[in-house]
Each structure stands twice: as C-alpha cells, then as structure tokens.
C-alpha cells in the first residue's frame, strides 16, 4: 500500500500496552492502515521520525464548555479548539445547553450547531445539558437526538438556582436515558446546603473569593454524590459523576463499583494539582483568587489530592477531563463581575477554569515517561485510558477514536524524546482566548511535539498551530459502553419481583 504518512521510530502506547520499539505506523486517507516494521514508502509518502519518543492516541476531552450563553467571556469554538490541538487534544465533546424556558431542544441544538460549524480545529460532538426535562423532551426528542444527531449523553445539575433539578426529575432522566442507551452525567453538589451557607456568609460580610471554597464544603459533594448513585441504582441506569474532588464522594463511587453498579467517575486537572489556598489570591490582591473559582471548589488539603491520585491509578476514575469553563479575569462581564462597587462578592464570580490545553501534558508528566518509576503516579497505559480511550468507549466513539489500531482515525500525539519536551506552563504560551492559566509556573516533563488529526499534522511545537479552522468534523456518536459494572442489578433492599410491581 502507498501510505500518505509513515511514523517511524516511535514507541506506541495504547490503553493496554506499551508496544515494542521499532514498530511503524502506516496512515492512509486519515486512518491508521497498518502497524508493522519496515513499511514501504514512495516519493509521495510523508515520513515523521519520532526519534524514539512515545506516540499516544490524540486526546479526547469529554467535558468542555465552549460558546455557552452563561459564560459570555469564555472561549468560543475557534479559540477553544485551537487551544485543544496545541495541547494534544484532537476531539472535544462540549455542551449544548438548554435553559429553563426552552421547551424544545431542537432550536437549542441549531443555535450550537451554527456557532460551531466550520469553526473548529479539532473534531467535536455535543452532550445536552437538561434543565427542563419535560415529558415531551424525554419521550419524543431524546430518541431523535440520539439517532439522528448522534448525541448520546446528557448532563444535569443538582445545584445552581437556574439549572438544578429535583430528585424526581433526575430519576425521570435516568430512566429515559437508560431506555435509549444514553449516558447521564451528573453535577453532584447539595444545593440546599450550599445556598444556606452562602446566605450566612453574605450576612456576615464574608465575601472574599476564598469564601467560595467555604460555601461548598466536601460534605455537599459527598451527600449529593451518594444521592446521585442511589437514584441511578433505583433506575438501574449507567451514570457518571462529573468533576469529582472529594475523597469521601469517591469512596461512595468505589463502593458502588464494588457492587457492580454501572457508576463512572470523572475528575479534572485542577483537583489533582491545585489547592484552595490559590483562591486566597496574591497577598496584596485577595480578589485575584477569583481566577481559581470553580465548582466544586479546589480543596483544602494535600490529603484530598493524594486520594484523587490513588483513584486515578487504581481505576476508580473512568475519565479525566478539563472541564474547560473559563471566563476572562480582567474583562467586563468576566471574573471581575464578582467585584461589586469595590466590594468582593464571591457568589457573583463566574465558576470555571481554563484547562483544555494543559490537561494532557499535566497527566503525561506523572507517568514513568517523565518521572522515575517509583515517583510515577500512573502507568502509561492508564494515562491513555484516562486521556482518551475511556471517553471514546463511554461516549460512543469506540472503533473510530481513542486508540492506535488499524481502522481508527489517525489521531496521534508524538511527544518529544527523553526530557527534551520539559516545559513550564505559562499564559504567554497558551492558545486560548483567556487572560490567565491557573497552572502558571507548573512544570511538566514533556509537551506534545506534534498533534496529528486524521493523518494531518495540526500542531508542530516548532511552528505552532499548522491546522486550519474548519478542518474539525462533527462526530455523530453511537451508544456508549458501560465500562464499570453492569446493568440488570436489583436496587438494595428490593426483591427482583418487586420492581415489576411499579415499573
Ligand atoms: N460545572 C461545570 O461543569 N463546569 C463549570 C462550573 C460547574 O459548575
Ligand atoms: Zn458541573
Ligand atoms: Zn480581603
Ligand atoms: Zn463543566
């Protein structure tokens, strides 16, 4: 076969193995055609010499907010996906977000399609955020979205006045999604706990950004996570808890997984690398802590970080996403919104951090590729699972994205050999349209040298962005797989025949 591109001298890594040195990748028409040795080349074959570096599948970031109405100073599809490829991510799944007044999802989807089409540097899909799950939407619209549009996952919120659903609504969605083979993602924090604490903090004039972390204690995440798991258990529905930050909440997930419930969990780079002291800001400028306001908040204790890293290594987490949901800091409508007439008001600061570009390198930096084996936090195959493969399987992209195997899209990261890619993260190197990175000054052991999307180099660290806006394709996704446990469980304390009495 006459290949378009051959990648030589790389060490290929998949979700299950680090393949022997010396294997070559033959790429044709945007797909991986062949893995072999001494592949034939012709005058038209482009050759990339990886110089002994690792080659991993392109990243899939399955939790990204772009051009969402509720963050008017955030990234749009162009700037967000540009930032993605510069950091090794070749696929993003972002949100089309229903607002409470929307009684149909179709116009919402059209709106998000208009904003994204021909704008992206990488491939992309949508999850739907449901804030008003009417019977018509659940019965008539979700099946059409899944079949026709390839949108096979939804996110819902248990908190935020304008988004939150009650338990009955959560249950209805879980039952509907289960029926359709869709995955339900849940933002689990206790709304009533948080709103009561916020009231008290404001009454006592404790309104610096730091009090955001006080307002959303771990117990609020722990309680809501346990409740979300219980609701999913009753519905016997696959579910994923997004952006988990708390040790106890994760122990609820681990317990559910031990009982073979199909409960998945996601965490994000900021919970693994940053602590709540960041929200205190600079000594001379407390308000700059606003840059680190996200929900759930950064946690107080190194012990939290260690517990999360354990769950990264031991398989409890299924996905590792950026939750890129930034707002500019120094910009009208941005994070300065929280400064009202010279008085800081943490409850007005838009929630969310930038991170689409730094996600993959931060995690790769903790593997044996960048650290002595005894200091590594996770193996290279586990890195691949978390950075890409598991998201592909969970969200219906398996067979196309997320692995290095014949027939898959040729989406790749070629790293620098040895320690040549060591990098200090800094805002001036970022490609987002945000005025800061929360990871300023963090050192990573490597950075993507090349990002390849469907066989085309789109990022070359020497030249910068070499891909084109509009090259990204919309991904109609299939049904996701259950990666943990199984369905068909009977809820605790219920006899099998009792379900039939009420279902
Ligand atoms: N939830 C998210 O998923 N992203 C940003 C803020 C939030 O609450
Ligand atoms: Zn959320
Ligand atoms: Zn202060
Ligand atoms: Zn999010």
From TrEMBL:
Modified residues (N6-carboxylysine): 155
Gene Ontology molecular function terms on file: dihydropyrimidinase activity; metal ion binding
Catalytic activity: 5,6-dihydrouracil + H2O = 3-(carbamoylamino)propanoate + H(+)
Keywords tagged on the record: Hydrolase, Metal-binding, Phosphoprotein
InterPro entries linked: Amidohydro-rel, Hydantoinase/dihydroPyrase, Metal-dep_hydrolase_composite, Metal_Hydrolase, Metallo-dep_Hydrolases_sf
Post-translational modification: Carbamylation allows a single lysine to coordinate two divalent metal cations.
Phosphoprotein recorded as keyword: yes
Domain Amidohydrolase-related: 54-458
UniProt keyword annotation of Hydrolase present: yes
Enzyme class: hydrolase
Endpoints of the signal sequence: none
GO cellular component, one term: cytoplasm
This enzyme's EC code(s): 3.5.2.2
Cofactor(s) the record lists: Zn(2+)
Recorded family membership: Belongs to the metallo-dependent hydrolases superfamily. Hydantoinase/dihydropyrimidinase family.
Annotated protein name in UniProt: dihydropyrimidinase
Organism encoding this protein: Zasmidium cellare ATCC 36951
């Amino acid at each position: 076969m006459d290949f378009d591109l051959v990648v030589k001298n790389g060490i290929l890594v998949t979700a299950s193995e680090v393949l022997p040195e010396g294997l070559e990748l033959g790429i044709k028409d945007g797909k991986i055609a062949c893995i072999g040795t001494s592949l034939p080349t012709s005058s038209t074959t482009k050759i990339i010499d990886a110089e002994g570096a690792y080659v991993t599948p392109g990243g899939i970031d399955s939790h990204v907010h772009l051009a969402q109405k509720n963050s008017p100073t955030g990234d749009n599809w162009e700037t967000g996906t540009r930032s993605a490829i510069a950091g090794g991510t070749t696929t993003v799944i972002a949100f089309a977000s229903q607002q409470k007044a929307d009684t149909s999802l179709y116009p919402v989807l059209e709106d998000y399609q208009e904003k994204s089409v021909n704008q992206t540097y990488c491939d992309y899909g949508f999850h739907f955020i449901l804030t008003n799950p009417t019977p018509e939407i659940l019965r008539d619209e979700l099946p059409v979205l899944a079949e026709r549009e390839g949108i096979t996952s939804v996110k819902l919120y248990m908190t935020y006045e304008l988004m939150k659903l009650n338990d009955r609504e959560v249950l209805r969605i879980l039952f509907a999604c289960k029926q359709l083979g869709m995955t339900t993602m849940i933002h689990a924090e206790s709304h009533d706990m948080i709103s009561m604490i916020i009231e008290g903090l404001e009454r006592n004039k404790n309104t610096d950004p730091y009090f955001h972390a006080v307002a959303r204690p771990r117990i609020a995440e722990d309680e809501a996570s346990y409740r979300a798991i219980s609701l999913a258990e009753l519905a016997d529905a696959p579910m994923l808890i997004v952006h988990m930050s708390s040790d106890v909440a994760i122990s609820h997930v681990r317990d559910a997984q031990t009982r073979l419930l199909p409960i998945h969990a996601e965490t994000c780079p900021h919970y693994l690398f940053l602590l709540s002291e960041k929200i205190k800001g600079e000594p001379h400028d407390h308000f700059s802590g606003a840059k680190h306001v996200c929900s759930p908040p950064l946690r107080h204790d190194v012990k939290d970080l260690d517990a999360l890293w354990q769950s990264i290594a031991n398989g409890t987490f299924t996905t590792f996403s950026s939750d890129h949901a930034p707002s500019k800091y120094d910009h009208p409508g941005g994070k300065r919104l929280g400064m009202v007439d010279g008085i800081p008001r943490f409850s007005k600061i838009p929630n969310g951090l930038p991170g689409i570009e730094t996600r993959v390198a931060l995690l790769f930096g903790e593997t044996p590729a960048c650290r002595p084996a005894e200091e590594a936090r996770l193996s290279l195959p586990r890195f691949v699972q978390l950075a890409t493969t598991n998201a592909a399987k969970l969200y219906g992209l398996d067979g196309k994205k997320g692995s290095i195997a014949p027939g898959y899209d040729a989406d790749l990261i070629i790293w620098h050999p040895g320690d040549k890619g060591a990098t200090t993260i800094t805002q001036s190197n970022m490609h987002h349209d945000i005025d800061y990175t929360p990871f300023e000054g963090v050192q990573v052991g490597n950075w993507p040298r090349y990002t390849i999307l469907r066989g085309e180099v789109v990022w070359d660290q020497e030249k910068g962005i070499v891909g084109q806006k509009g090259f990204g394709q919309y991904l109609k996704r299939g049904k996701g797989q259950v990666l943990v446990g199984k369905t068909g469980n009977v809820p605790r304390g219920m006899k099998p025949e009792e379900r039939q009495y009420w279902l």
